[in-house]
Write a structure and sequence with these properties.
- One of its GO terms (cellular component) is nucleus.
- This is U6 snRNA phosphodiesterase 1.
- GO terms for molecular function: 3'-5'-RNA exonuclease activity; lyase activity.
- This protein is of the alpha+beta class and 259 residues long.
- It has a single domain, classed as Cyclic phosphodiesterase (Cyclic Phosphodiesterase, Chain: A, Alpha-Beta Complex), CATH 3.90.1140.
- It is 27% helix and 26% strand.
- The chain is built from 7 helices and 11 strands.
- The strands form 2 sheets. Strands 1, 3, 6, 7, 8 and 9 form a 6-stranded antiparallel beta sheet that branches. Strands 2, 4, 5, 10 and 11 form a 5-stranded antiparallel beta sheet that branches.
- Strand 6 and strand 7 form a beta hairpin.
- Helix 2 runs antiparallel to helix 6.
- The longest helix is centred in the last third of the chain and has 17 residues.
- The chain starts with a helix and ends with a strand.
């Protein structure tokens, strides 16, 4: 049933996803705007649904509610660094998820992995080409770089309807901020929301419906970090060289190689 649950995020249905770190007290509703969040992770899966479908039957996507109204000609768009999972990474993922399920049985493992450089924003169809052209120009000068993602963290999305376990970046933060600043520049050209202030860059590993951060933090999180730290290949695995940036708009993918 795991894959069925994930297919529910069609590209036109991506909610504002992701992560206020730790899911703790957030202050008044308006205060959470600067918190890091993550566009819908499984929305990166290939999506058979036609982009122009206008029905919004929530039973078709696990009862989830869209973060923005879907209208004809609106394309959900997301800029990210794709992470290609090796076999050893999937072994580590399996260890982490099976341990975490002893605390939250409903956790589903991600099937694709990425690090977000933008929120999920809405582009009109005729804006896609100039948007991608502008991204290409701004990102052309960037070189490949490494980062280390080795800190297990718990995240919730903005409206607390979902909880995630992710790997937070502990090195390479500065280069990621530089990339975000270029992506933000493109978003501003199109009057679209920029990325969160003080983001927690991370790769989501697993998710569940509801705010279950309380069950995953503390003891569970310590056990997960111990598993990660003790994993034979973890230092090698979690030192990631990014080779390309990707933009997904509706069902179209655009790739921007780093030099």
């Amino acid at each position: 049933a795991m894959s069925a649950a994930l297919v529910g995020y069609s590209s036109s249905e991506e909610e504002e996803e992701g992560a206020s770190r730790g899911g703790g007290a957030q202050g008044p509703p308006g205060a959470s705007a600067g918190r890091p969040r993550l566009p819908a992770p499984a929305g990166l899966l290939g999506d058979p649904e036609p982009e122009e479908a206008v029905s919004d039957d929530s039973s078709r996507h696990g009862g989830r509610v869209r973060g923005f109204p879907h209208e004809r000609g609106n394309w959900a768009t997301h800029v990210y660094l794709p992470y290609i999972a090796q076999e050893e990474f999937l072994e580590l993922l399996e260890l982490l998820v099976s341990r975490a399920r002893t605390y939250v049985p409903s956790l589903a493992a991600m099937e694709e992995f990425h690090l977000s450089l933008s929120q999920c924003v809405v582009l009109r169809y005729h804006w896609i080409e100039p948007f991608v052209r502008s991204l290409r120009e701004r990102l052309a000068a960037f070189h490949r770089f490494f980062c280390v993602a080795d800190q297990v963290k718990v995240y919730t999305n903005q409206n607390k309807t979902r909880t995630f376990i992710g790997l937070e970046v502990s090195a390479g933060h500065f280069q990621l901020l530089e990339l975000v600043s270029e992506v933000d520049g493109v978003l501003e050209e199109f009057d679209l929301p920029t990325f969160y202030k003080d983001p927690s860059f991370h790769i989501s590993l697993a998710w569940c419906v509801g705010d279950l951060s309380g069950r995953l933090e503390g003891q569970c999180l310590r056990e997960l970090q111990d598993i990660l730290d003790g994993f034979e290949d973890s230092a090698f695995l979690l030192r990631i060289q990014w080779e390309q940036i990707r933009c997904k708009s509706g069902n179209k993918y655009f790739s921007f190689p780093l030099r």
